[in-house]
UniProtKB/TrEMBL annotation:
Superkingdom, natural source: Bacteria
Matching SUPFAM superfamilies: alpha/beta-Hydrolases
The species this protein was found in: Microtetraspora malaysiensis
Transmembrane regions listed in the UniProt entry: none
Protein name as it appears in the record: Esterase
Length: 343
């Protein structure tokens, strides 16, 4: 990486890490567990008829009883000889799962493998309500019904193409001319999208905080809606969170509410893609995050800001970990961790 002209902003070198052969990644252990959550009792719901099986009459079900709720699913891979001093916890965006980091929709290695190749143990999480983490009964417990995003919303919101450019027929879709997203694999990507529960942030935060405490000293890598959860986890547990890498975070804390003395020794890396003017909400999130970045630096903290288009990577979508240059951005993250994060 080269020093940028703006303090706290770095340029990306043209080269990067080459992903080693799989033989270069020696795994000591892999597995999974659930963390966080609490017991909850439902006792005032009415019994109802429920579908039993094809061709059979419905059966009456009593929905009352004890449940576990709020837990986060974690898949971990621990290396035989990790070179990175700290494990990386990877938290996905809204309506997505940890699959975002595992493999790109067109079949290239995902950031999980790139971070492993960089020498870090990796913990990929499914936040509450996503992937292999369960969700609550609706309407008895959940405060709102899940949201199901259409392909058009995903295409436009994730900045693969401008508003009005989506079509049901893939041949008629009009992506940004410079897009780095693998457009031919868009429908494959959509297969991993799950319903989003907008009332689960507090439960998910508690689950992620429990994960931070369980793992101990770590690096958090967040994407999109997980960004604010990562900032909050860092502020709550600066003794455990030793760095936060935020990929297009959905905002950041109001600096007036933050005790920056807790964060001065915690380096932050914030990365943004292209076409942020396509939707006014992206500009607002960019501005609020920049305000936090500037305030942290003014308070004596360490925060690095990277606009990928300014570094020559035009056409980056919101799904930066899936773009065709995702390996180069992963190399940048690995290099930044090596330079900025100690045990």
């Amino acid at each position: 990486m080269l020093a940028g002209s703006v303090p706290g902003v770095v340029a990306v070198a043209a080269g990067g890490w080459a992903l080693p052969d799989n033989d270069g990644i020696r795994v000591r252990e892999m597995g999974s567990y659930y963390v966080g959550g609490k017991s909850i009792t439902l006792d005032d719901a009415e019994s109802r008829d429920a579908f039993a099986a094809q061709g059979q009459p419905p059966v009456q079900v009593n929905p009352n009883g004890d449940f576990e709720t709020g837990q986060v699913y974690v898949q971990y891979v621990r290396l035989a000889r990790p070179r990175g001093s700290l494990p990386v916890l990877m938290w996905h965006g809204g309506g997505l799962t940890g699959a975002s980091f595992e493999t790109t929709p067109d079949g290239r290695p995902g950031w999980q493998q790139h971070l492993l190749a960089g020498g870090h143990d990796v913990y990929v999480a499914d936040g509450f309500g996503g992937g292999r983490a369960p969700w609550q009964r609706y309407p008895e417990i959940s405060q709102s019904e899940p949201l199901f995003r259409t392909k058009q919303e995903l295409w436009e919101l994730f900045r693969i193409g401008p508003p009005g450019s989506y079509a049901t027929d893939p041949a008629k879709r009009r992506p940004y001319p410079d897009t780095l997203f693998p457009v031919a694999a868009f429908d494959e990507f959509v297969k991993q999208v799950v319903p989003r529960f907008r009332t689960y942030d507090q439960s998910t935060q508690a689950g992620y905080d429990a994960l931070v405490a369980k793992v101990g000293p770590n690096v958090i890598l967040t994407h999109s809606a997980a960004g604010p959860l990562g900032f909050a986890a860092t502020i709550a547990a600066p003794g455990h969170v030793r760095a936060h890498v935020a990929i297009e975070p959905s905002g950041a804390p109001d600096p007036s509410t933050v005790d920056f003395s807790r964060l001065r020794r915690i380096p932050h890396l914030v990365i943004w893609g292209d076409h942020l003017d396509a939707d006014g909400s992206w500009a607002e999130l960019y501005t609020s995050t920049r305000r936090f970045h500037d305030a942290l630096r003014k308070a004596g903290g360490r925060s690095t800001w990277i606009d990928l288009p300014a570094e020559g990577y035009r056409g980056s979508s919101h799904m930066i970990m899936m773009d065709r240059n995702s390996d180069k951005v992963a190399a940048l993250i690995n290099s930044w961790l090596e330079e900025n994060v100690k045990g």
